[in-house]
Amino acid sequence: MGDPERPEAARPEQGEKLSPDTNEDEEPLLKKSSRRFVIFPIQYPDIWKMYKQAQASFWTAEEVDLSKDLPHWNRLTSDEKYFISHVLAFFAASDGIVNENLVERFSQEVQVPEARCFYGFQILIENVHSEMYSLLIDTYIRDPKKREFLFNAIETMPYVKKKADWALRWIADRKSTFGERVVAFAAVEGIFFSGSFAAIFWLKKRGLMPGLTFSNELISRDEGLHCDFACLMFQYLVNKPSEERVREIIVNAVEIEQEFLTEALPVGLIGMNCILMKQYIEFVADRLLMELGFSKNTVREILGNYGLECVRKKTRQNRSNSLLWPGKAIEDGPAPMLEARKKLLTPGFRLAQLQLLQLFGE
């Protein structure tokens, strides 16, 4: 039997109307209680389940073998090396920013122990991600000055600084609601990372850099779970931001990510198609909006693009002129998942992962 003082929580219905005087003090997730120090009895079973999923997918940087990557690295073109090293520089800094938000804001604001467990584990795994990216840079870049330049990307690379500043502003913002910041950091982990993850999947399709691409699979899986957790937290909010406000935050993140990977650090450097990358980022944003409970295709409509399905049809029309890679057409069926990892993926991210593998190859 559950504790009568702590009944199982009911998730508010999507689109539930709020009274004008609703404020964050009335949010169940944020309301202080002495029960926040004790985990059992479980009040939020779905939040607890997601924490256990995260726990089951734990890994360390020592599990990733980088010994075969250097010969591949030495055969890459200068453009490919430039692209990979700068993407890694962004990643190396970004996980620290995510943790800054978790430590300074979310872990202090959220009073539900199940969610605090998830955030605590997320902090741990983000540290693993940061270590992994630092090891990758350390392995590939032999020049100490170049390494220092990459490790200090927030100061040395304007386009990395732009993405970092966007996230840091949300951490520092004392006027925004908790719900707005949940959406913003879902965008950081779900959109700001998506294009770079896809670019590294592209390298895997070419049979390059097995250590890098394996770590990318592990990290992209983790970040997908973190994004889905943000969506779950959003569903529990009584005082949700309006759909218009959510769209505004998401579209802003999409525009920054598209600029990053098609202008500042164009994926054309590694042979990918910039138009397809733009549309893929929009697809990811649409998926995020749906997970948050809003209508699909809103991002594409706002940005005035035709959408991913259009590109898929064009690529199927001519195998020899695929937008993805020469001589390779997209198959109609979803690409197979890695069976050993499949059970650890949440339903929302599994859909996005299947679509990503369908586009960029497993």
TrEMBL record:
<protein>
    <recommendedName>
        <fullName>ribonucleoside-diphosphate reductase</fullName>
        <ecNumber>1.17.4.1</ecNumber>
    </recommendedName>
</protein>
<keyword id="KW-0560">Oxidoreductase</keyword>
<keyword id="KW-0479">Metal-binding</keyword>
<dbReference type="GO" id="GO:0005829">
    <property type="term" value="C:cytosol"/>
</dbReference>
<dbReference type="InterPro" id="IPR009078">
    <property type="entry name" value="Ferritin-like_SF"/>
</dbReference>
<dbReference type="InterPro" id="IPR000358">
    <property type="entry name" value="RNR_small_fam"/>
</dbReference>
<keyword id="KW-0215">Deoxyribonucleotide synthesis</keyword>
<dbReference type="InterPro" id="IPR030475">
    <property type="entry name" value="RNR_small_AS"/>
</dbReference>
<dbReference type="GO" id="GO:0046872">
    <property type="term" value="F:metal ion binding"/>
</dbReference>
<keyword id="KW-0812">Transmembrane</keyword>
<feature type="transmembrane region" description="Helical">
    <location>
        <begin position="182"/>
        <end position="203"/>
    </location>
</feature>
<dbReference type="GO" id="GO:0004748">
    <property type="term" value="F:ribonucleoside-diphosphate reductase activity, thioredoxin disulfide as acceptor"/>
</dbReference>
<comment type="similarity">
    <text>Belongs to the ribonucleoside diphosphate reductase small chain family.</text>
</comment>
<dbReference type="InterPro" id="IPR012348">
    <property type="entry name" value="RNR-like"/>
</dbReference>
<dbReference type="Pfam" id="PF00268">
    <property type="entry name" value="Ribonuc_red_sm"/>
</dbReference>
<keyword id="KW-0408">Iron</keyword>
<keyword id="KW-0472">Membrane</keyword>
<feature type="region of interest" description="Disordered">
    <location>
        <begin position="1"/>
        <end position="29"/>
    </location>
</feature>
<feature type="compositionally biased region" description="Basic and acidic residues">
    <location>
        <begin position="1"/>
        <end position="19"/>
    </location>
</feature>
<keyword id="KW-1133">Transmembrane helix</keyword>
<dbReference type="InterPro" id="IPR033909">
    <property type="entry name" value="RNR_small"/>
</dbReference>
<dbReference type="GO" id="GO:0009263">
    <property type="term" value="P:deoxyribonucleotide biosynthetic process"/>
</dbReference>
